Amino acid sequence: MSSRFDRKKLCLSFGAILLILLPMLASLCGEPYLISLASRILIYALAAVSLDLILGYGGLVSLGHAAFFGIGAYMVAILAHHDFEGTALISWPLTVPGSDSALIAWPAAVLCSGLLAAIIGALSLRTTGMHFIMITLAFAQMLFYFFVGLESYGGDDGLTLFSRNTLPHFDLSDDTQFYYVCLVLLFVFLLLASRLVVSRFGLVIRGCRENDKRMQSLGFPTYRYKLLCFMIAGAASGLAGALIANQIEYVSPGLMHWTRSGVILVMVLLGGTGTLYGPVLGAAAFLLLEEILSIYTEHWMLYFGPLLILVVLFARHGLYGILAGKGKRYG
Amino acid sequence: MAEPLLRIDKLSKNFGSIVASQGVSLEVFPGEIHALIGPNGAGKTTLLNQIAGDLVPDSGQIFFDGHDITRLPLYQRSHLGLARSYQITSVFPQLSVEENLLLAIQAQRGHSFRFWRRGLSIPELRDDLESSLERVGLSERAEMSACNLSHGEKKQLEVGMALACNPRLLLLDEPMAGMGPGGTVELSKLIRRLKEKTTILLVEHDMETIFALADRITVLVYGEVVTTGTAEEIRSNAIVRHAYLGDEDEAC
Ligand SMILES: Nc1ncnc2c1ncn2[C@@H]1O[C@H](COP(=O)(O)OP(=O)(O)OP(=O)(O)O)[C@@H](O)[C@H]1O
Ligand SMILES: [Mg+2]
């Protein structure tokens, strides 16, 4: 019991140190390109951890998580677009200009995706199981087609950012600084989430995963709890979206396509559902394998698929379970 | 007599062509242990489900402490003071024993929109938790996943969760079933002790336990109340003996 606990701590410390030192290691190896790949991993990790909150802890399989990711990204891009053009985002009843400041755009992205999650959640959480999957998927696809048709923001072609957002005392266009901003945000979210899942709120969420009816019979209005959890996850995914817009300096409807939701879901499954840290591993494994395998073949999914099946079949808590020891309850 | 704590008035419920409750009327008075007996499929669980709010009746009314709760949402009933245990144990299998009990406790302590402190480490809740664990004899098992408990222990936990709700009316659905003789004796003692604090509606098959514990007994057959009376009255009721207790009783 205690050795397993230590092993978990060891893994987490090792992972944290690796992530902190990574930019230095990358420049030592003379591969600065790695830093931007690593940033991408951190950003997807944030989205995957947020999905794990509702999937692993809440037991709600959402196939629409990329909707929040995409909205966050578009929020940043649209604000930057208006700022660049010098036009107003909203001109009535009050004038709201665009902005290229991270301190405005990122909270706006979080707020907007959180609100979207409130709407989607309010409707989808009235159902469960297959219906829930289909409704989240349907909403995400609706949003996808909405942005495809939104010609004023590039439609199908998407929007290119003139530059990354500005942040006081930081230069986000510097890949290393941008990496550390992503890393801090991921660490903060992991800290908050790791408190959340053992808090009274988290216990209610885990109870709902096991038996919703029983929770109600104990006196919990479960719908409200699940809705808030869904909103928290959506908001965090929106933040990840704001970061990805900055990282690739380009947004397109593809960011919220259902296949993107699938990718985030696969990261969670691969890393280990209900483990919180596992999805970070999942994101890293997925993106690294994509990077490596796609050098050799464009059909890299052909090789990735069987691997995923093996992990999901044989490792109950995914890669994280393999590394940090199995048998322990994480949820 | 005092006002009934629970009053059921002509409750009916069908599942397709199956009549599970048929004009059931019943009163449970404060402080009593009221037993509900009847053969398999008589509709005991279905009646409990309607009182607890897991099922909505087709017609009829349920009053708790004077309030009409017939259509009250499930989660609001526990705040009025209703708690139940399920016939099919429904503890939370992946949560630890103490987490299971903590859920029942925190449900009674205002909302749970609390995000930072670890639930299990909160001193005010911890005290209640320890006594809840002790009450059902699961202190040793506190950190174990509920799914790893034995069948009897799960039953104990199930009852413990209902008790942790501090109910005014406790609905127990065959709490003794599958518990083994030792557990049955323990639980009987516990139920008798609880009588001081709470009113109990008890569904049970074990007639010995019923006659030992219950102040009044209602007999349900095919969804209908056959009779209600004290243990002696029920024991000597001819219809009941015929319909439920069976003829071997007559031989004694
Ligand atoms: N959800 C349901 N759907 C359809 N029929 C049901 C349902 N629940 C119960 N029934 C039927 O209603 C009748 C009453 O069932 P109930 O479970 O209330 O009986 P019971 O008295 O609790 O029996 P037991 O002693 O076996 O627990 C039975 O015929 C049962 O098959
Ligand atoms: Mg029953």
Put simply, the count of helices of chain B is 10
Overall, the morphology of chain B is globular
At CATH level 2, the architecture of chain A is Orthogonal Bundle
Give the topology string of chain A: H per helix, E per strand: HHHEEHHEHHHHEHHHH
Overall number of domains of chain A: 1
Name the average pLDDT of chain A: 92
Distance between the first and last residues' Cα of chain B: 35 Å
**Looking across the biggest beta sheet of chain A, what order are the strands in?**
1-2
Radius of gyration of chain A: 20 Å
Largest beta-sheet details of chain A: 2 strands, antiparallel
Residue windows where pLDDT falls under 50 for at least 5 positions of chain A: none
Q: Bound small molecules, which ones?
A: adenosine-5'-triphosphate, magnesium ion
Task: Describe this structure as you would to a colleague.
Chain A has helices at residues 2-28, 33-57, 65-85, 102-124, 129-148, 175-198, 200-210, 212-218, 222-248, 258-271, 278-296, 301-314, 318-324; strands at residues 88-90, 96-97, 159-160, 250-251. Chain A has 331 residues and is mostly helical. In chain A, the strands form two sheets. Chain A has a two-stranded antiparallel sheet. Chain B is of the alpha/beta class. Chain B is 37% helix and 24% strand. In chain B, the strands form two sheets. Chain B has a six-stranded mixed beta sheet, with helices on both faces. A four-stranded antiparallel beta sheet of chain B has the order 2-1-4-5, covered by helices on one side. Chain B is globular and about 55 Å long. The two termini of chain B are 35 Å apart. Residues 247-252 of chain B have low confidence and may be disordered. Residues 15, 18, 20, 38, 40-46, 87 of chain B line the site of adenosine-5'-triphosphate (ATP).
